[in-house]
Each structure stands twice: as C-alpha cells, then as structure tokens.
Amino acid sequence: MFILLGASVWGIAWYPYRLLAAWGLGGMLASSLTGAAAAVLAAVALRRHFATFQWSWVIPALGLAAGVTNAGFVWGTVHGTVMRVLLLFYLTPVWTALLARMWLHERLGWRGGMLLTLALAGAVMMLWSGEAGTPWPGSSAEWAGLIAGLAFACNNVLSRLAGQRHPTMRPEMRTVVVFTGCALVGFPAALLFDGVHSAPDALAQGGTWLLLIAMAGVLVGGNALVQRGLQRLHANRAALLMLFEIVVAAVSSALLTAERMSMREMAGGACIILAGALSALSPRK
C-alpha cells in the first residue's frame, strides 16, 4: 500500500512541472528547487531520527541515483509525450531484476518471473498502441525517460541495500538523502539543458513559490511512503508495484491533456494493475 500511494504521487507529478515550464521556470531548475525544499522539509520533519543516520558508500550512491532519476523523469515528461516517456521509464523492472540479482543476490523465482512478464507485457501493449509507435526512443525526452528508468532501478536496489547495510537507521532518513541528491543533480542539469534567462521573472511570481512548496510537501510524503515500502519488500516486487504509476499517468494525461487512451492502452494498464495486485497478495517466503 505504501508503494502504491507513492507511485500515485509520481503518476501526477509531471503536470505541475509542465505548469511551471509554461510560466517560464524550466523543468530542471524547478525540480532542483523542489528537491532542495523537500530536503529541508524532510530534515525538519525527521530531525528526531537523525541520531540513527549512518554513512557508507551506499548513501551518496543513492542520492546520485535519485537525482538522475528525477532529472530524467522531469525532462522527459515536460518535453515529451507523457505516456511514451513513462513507458520507457518503466522498463525499470528489467534493470531491477538484474541489479537485485547482482547486488542483493535475490532470486526472481518462477512466480516473480510470471508477474514480471505480465507487467512488461502490459507495458509493451501500451507502448505499441496509438501514436507511440515502436518502443525505441525517438527523441531526447524519450532517451531521458529510458535513462531515468535505469537510474530508478539503481535507486530501488540501493534503498534496499541501505536497509540491509544499516538496519538500525530509520528508513525515512533515506528521504533526506534522495531529495538532497535531486537538488544537487538538478542545478547543474538546469545550467546545461534549461537555460535560466527566464527564471527570475517566473520566480518573482508568488504562485510559482506556492506551487513549488506544495509539490515539495507532497513529494516528501510520497517518497517517505516508498522508502518504508522498500524496507519491507524485495526490490523486484517493489518495482512491480511501482508500475501502478503508469496507470495513474495514463488517466491524468487523458484528463489534463489531449492524449486519450485506446482500448489496447487500457488492456495494458489492466495487466500492470493485475501484476501489481498479485505481487502484493502473493505469500512471502
């Protein structure tokens, strides 16, 4: 349930970034500012847990993976077609299965393999429908989605690894690490890809800051739920549950943009939901 709620947050997060981009605040700069605000909010809200914080190479690696994930996700969904970028992003289970095997020594098993196949089959059905065309990235936005998916797989597995390496550290502490990474990666990405010439005018508007702060609060809550869920689930199962984000994005993009879902997209979304539900209901060893 924690991961499903967190995935729902990211399924709609693309829209505020598009609004900010329309107001003149580039997606990379908006994501870095949101990350910085979220890191501060998380640090204040979780200050009583800082005594449990522990340091190892996993911590900066987790922050870097989260920063690349966020930058690729935001760039792709702001500049590309939401559903195509999200579907390329959610090749994540493939990367997660490989990384979990190498880093965590997790076995996928026949049941996990069947659920993974079902989820990926749903993603392929949606990817090949309508105007999506072939599953090969066709623009910089789509490549950003693909790279973000690989980084997201690293983020999932590193979160699980951090829980194993530091069992006494509160999982919520990883929320601060994740958003600090988003801020640190986002600022140089903004200079490289966005340009900041229109940022001062956008930041002079009170509505911009209200939206940034509101997004930061929602993302902190969503990420805290995901981190708690990752603490309790294997990386492969968590990745399957996170595929629910595609369904939320499909519905939100249909309601908020001119994009519409075909019957094949709906069938693909149903496969993804079914895989997530079966994964959550299957008994754990």
Automatic annotation (TrEMBL):
Topology versus the membrane: Multi-pass membrane protein
SUPFAM superfamilies, alphabetized: Multidrug resistance efflux transporter EmrE
Subcellular location: Membrane
Transmembrane spans: 20-45, 57-75, 81-100, 112-131, 143-163, 175-196, 208-226, 238-256, 262-281
Primary site of residence: membrane
Cross-referenced Pfam families: EamA
PANTHER family from the UniProt entry: EAMA DOMAIN-CONTAINING PROTEIN, INNER MEMBRANE TRANSPORTER
Protein name: EamA domain-containing protein
Organism per entry: Ralstonia condita
